[in-house]
Amino acid sequence: MNEDHPTDNWPEKSGEYKVVQFMINDKPYLRFSDKDYTHHSIIVKTFIDFEIDDYIKKYDDIGMLFPLEGINYKLPGMGFAKIDVEKKTAHFDRISGDYEIGIDGEHLRLIKNLYNDWDISYSEKGSTKIIKL
């Protein structure tokens, strides 16, 4: 498995993005993508980039999904992020409709430890309360 990858791919422009939270070999990763992409496509691209091939796809009534946990990975959270590059602020919220999970606060705390110069906040699944890290 190739692990020579940055922890994240923070957007270069301010805006709203889809985001998937990964733990790969117990290391936290964040992957952002334009809203036109699905959370599933972010997972596929990341699995290809990291050469993760130990997953098993499952089928359900909406199509093919990946399990939230495999041998070398976990998918602790998914949702959306509002990024302001100039102000270095990021707010994470909402859920992935297909995977039915929201943003994971513990994972974001691990990311925040790597990016102390960013103001990071999130809202838990089903809540409008904003939690600042």
Q: Any chance you could write out the topology, listing elements then pairs?
A:
Elements: E1 15-24, E2 27-34, H1 39-49, E3 58-60, E4 63-65, E5 73-84, E6 89-93, E7 95-96, E8 101-102, H2 105-114, E9 119-122, E10 131-132
Parallel strand pairs: 6-9
Antiparallel strand pairs: 1-2, 1-5, 3-4, 5-6, 7-8, 9-10
How would you describe this structure to a colleague?
- A hairpin with a 2-residue loop joins strand 1 (15-24) and strand 2 (27-34).
- The protein has helices at residues 39-49, 105-114, and strands at 15-24, 27-34, 58-60, 63-65, 73-84, 89-93, 95-96, 101-102, 119-122, 131-132.
- The chain is of the alpha+beta class.
- A six-stranded mixed beta sheet has the order 2-1-5-6-9-10, sandwiched between helices.
- The chain has a single domain (15-132), classed as 3-Layer(bba) Sandwich (Pyruvoyl-Dependent Histidine Decarboxylase, Chain B).
- It starts with 14 loop residues before the first strand and ends with a strand.
